Amino acid sequence: MAGRVIAVCQGRGHGFSKPTQLSIRLLAGLGVAGDAHAGSTVKHRSRVARDPTQPNLRQVHLIHAELFDELAAAGFDIGPGQIGENVTTSGVDLLGLPAGARLRLGEAAIVAVTGLRNPCVQLNRFRPGLMAAVLGRDAQGGLVRKAGVMAVVLADGDVRPGDAIAVDLPALPHRPLAVV
Length: 180
Fold this sequence. Notes:
single chain, alpha+beta, M1 Pyruvate Kinase, Domain 3, 7-stranded mixed β-barrel, 3-stranded antiparallel sheet, 4 helices, globular
């Protein structure tokens, strides 16, 4: 599997959307330099309220641009950064990756996928009905969360739109992604 970075986003505050940038810097063990969610322990407000000492398994949020195409067909005009991701990708089946898959973003940055983003009510505050649009059902009736994946940074590096994405899968047996 290989793909491309479509956009990179970073937000200093705890707002929902993140502005697109020309580049972002990923910092090992922390996340996106200057982003509100960077840190070795949890930074998402609801998780901090429960236990601020939890490890931050949500340092980088990645969404596949193919989701935006699907949402457009459902009447939602959504672009990079608008639903809070740091990296918008194309050509990589993010939701199909196993836990622990490593993504090389650009020349040096490496992230390890920790799990799925759990869509929340903030999506509906941004656009009514959006939360339902990023949820689906598989052939067995199981819930499918389409709002991207979360990762931790293993190796520092700058990431820019147009950068290549290389995927390294972990050893078998693969563990499916769960909500983090």
